[in-house]
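Q: Could you write out the predicted structure for this multi-component system? I'm mainly interested in how the pieces pack against one another.
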Amino acid sequence: MCALGCGAEVSPLTTPIPADRVVAPGLWFVLTNIDLQHLPAAVRLAAGKKLEASLAPIDLGGLKISATTLPLTVGEGAATITKSQDVALVFPVSTSPVPLAAVAPGQAACALSWQAKSASLVLTLRFGRLSSGGVDIVLTESPKFTVESGALTDSNQCLAKSGSATTVTAHLANAAKSALSASYVKAARTALKTVIPPALETSVAVSLDVEGQPITAEIQTKYRKLGPISTKSADSLLVHNGSFAAIGMDLGVDVSRHSCALDTPPPQLVAQPLPVKAPQPVAAGKVLRRALVLDRAALSHLAWSAARGGVLCRGVASGVEKRLPANWAANAVPALSHLVDAGDVGARFWPGKPPTVRVISIGSQAGVEWHLPEAVLEMTAPVAGVEMVVLRVEGNFRLVIRPETALGVAFKIVSATVDSAVLSSPVLPSAAVGDGPALQKAVEGALQGIFSGALTLPGGALAGSAVIVGSSRVADQLWLWLEGGATTR
Amino acid sequence: MAHHNTGRHVTTRRADTACELATAWGLTHDRLVTDRRPSFAFLLSLGWVLSLACSEPPRCEEGLCPAGMSCVAATGLCEEDQTLAGAALPLLRGDYSVVSLSGLRYATVGYAPAQKSLVWTEHGPDHITTSYLAGPAAGGDQGAVGVLSAALSSPTGVPHVVWMRSSDRTLWYSFRDKDKWVTEAIDKVPPHRVGMHLALGLQSGQPVVAFADAIDGGISIARRSQGWSLSSLPAPPTQPDTGVSMGRGLAMSGRGGALALATYDAVGGDLILASHAASGWQSARFAGVDSTTGADLGDVGTPCSLARDVGGELIVAWRHRSANEVWVARSSGGEIVRRRVSAGNYQLPGRNVTRRRVVGTALDVVVRSDGRIAVALQDASRARIVVAVETVSGDFKRYEVPATGSPQIRPKLLARVDGSVVVSWLDLRSDGAGRLATWILNITGETP
């Protein structure tokens, strides 16, 4: 529903959002132990499995080692969470024998070689709060390159007189480290920013036009460390509990009231803590999988915000007919059979009381059920050549939506029903309008037509260009499994 | 007194401002007398409101009752005319036209489904006469005639009518010469070429017929001048070239040598305006696209309606379909002034909540004798007709047509020389046919 998009004007938020409009925390990013191992794989894929390091000439005082290149091979890495809750990425590195040439003035070049059979690159990155107040992914220390098993083979005794083998070895290791660091640090930060985007922490006011009315949506998101709050601002915000690493986010949304919405207080549900163990995703992860966990408290607040901002007061002038059988009107209300012509079918929805939501299981996946009490649905169709409201349904609507396997965090309506409904037809004021399966079908088609392709959570940036590959339900929490994506900055 | 359909209409010729206010809020006289099972409390409260609001009793005037009714002096009420009551007045289906005749007389022309014929009904001050222009009821033997028709009257009150014969989808034209109708085939339009929309205009006194071309696509123009000729309306360019599909929604308006046409491009969702001069047709996108940036501004232009003010300036009314709004534009001092007539807003009783009705799905625009615009709107959410009349300040004041107990569709307006506006519509029946109903709207209390 273009929830916070569509020609919006964005400006910085001048005052904090009131506490009763903040769900703390409302959502989490979770990396299971398995998914953690996607990080080094993605980093290696981006940075390269084979690199070449440039070795500058080494001046050993009367003897020079000529410039050359070091072919580096990076093996599959591993990720761990350190005691300080930082992400450590360890990559095995090796080289084939590197031929070197030692040249003394007026003498022929002397050949020697170097090989690192076993070396490792260790990058330790922290998702932490900077002194400036912002969050970013930074190296906690310089990348470490250690040659565990390496040898300088100098069978010609090239360096015998100079006694500088250690110096040469150090230069070689430094050259390898520099080359690896340049690629791998950037790739590692990119991968981490993809799974936990620092840019999601924001504080903005968005001006929108909703149904011809200016609406301001204030959004305030802030990463927070789970568990005891750290007093050290530079500490990692990530917490690993043995099963997964997670970071929480406070979600504050305040929306000016659209005239089509009732003025009601926010639901103020309290988010439940994350479970001790993460649910098992249905599909095996491939690239940068992580879970975006939305608590019912956050979903409820978002639903309240959407309703308050008029986003649910929505209609379409046509297109519903594609979701309905040709004789939908006659099926739903037999008396309409003589009145409704073929042609465009539109629909308009007016919410009543604020919606309530709950997380539900849909087979092996998860979804969200919206309960929209005291709402009105109007369906339009051609009557004697004039577009008229032919059906008015007033009652309690239920929409079951499930995550769509699509870009961004999108949802699809899988069913829509209405109960306790008062049915009428303005073009048939005295005719009885009965309830039945055909009417439910018409309601479902209309609601799908209205909200189709529009149920996207605020900030598609939550998922970047990631793909939803599955969903799980744990109590009142919706776990969305995301893969891939790109950094937001 | 109608017992089976619409109930009784009551109109007052000189409703004062208080009555207009009551009318605008739907507190009309006829609701008082036509609601079938009004509660006692409702009647009491409504009577109290009306007694405060209306300074004169709701008495009808001769000639100002709805079609098929006459003003009975004894009761002050419009009673169904015994000679034309109920079924005697043919039911209509689909589009119809209202044309002005001499004085305060007017006529309606439309398709009578029961007779499968084009029916002409004249509304005089004390009588209504019905005749058939074409079709079986007029002695024809070629099946249904007039499912599609358009009509207008010249400034001298001569009616012109164009209609389609269903059997071969050919076009026919009639005009009245004194008391006789002269009919001719528009022979330059080949059979089966006429699509679903039709409009009629006069240019330099000669009829010009525009129709959606079912074979060639777009809009074709048949022009009468020493015989009929046929041409095509050029489509305005699109950026990028996505094609044009014109013809759904069609209106024409001529004055002297000027002729304008409005239509809807279903591809771009734009309102297209075209004008005809000696050099031929020129067309442009008038609404639905930003003329500077080319940005799409929504689905705009169907339905649309045209009128001319006293100076001959063009008035355009249209529906912004995606925004559910009705707009009107007129030329003022060389500039085009656009105003929103209605967005269908209404307040939910007892709650501080505003909702919107689906409005403008049928509309008609006229210019009153004082130069102000009146737009009749279809309230599709309630199947009611609303008339928005321009005020001195340029805003629009809404008058709701009295409830008739039946769904109301297809509003038409006719501005009369005395400043009143004839509001016509069809009281829809469950079979899709409609009974023509008429309301005379007098607006007083404002200095032009």
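A: Regarding packing and overall arrangement: The first helix of chain A runs from residue 33 to 36.
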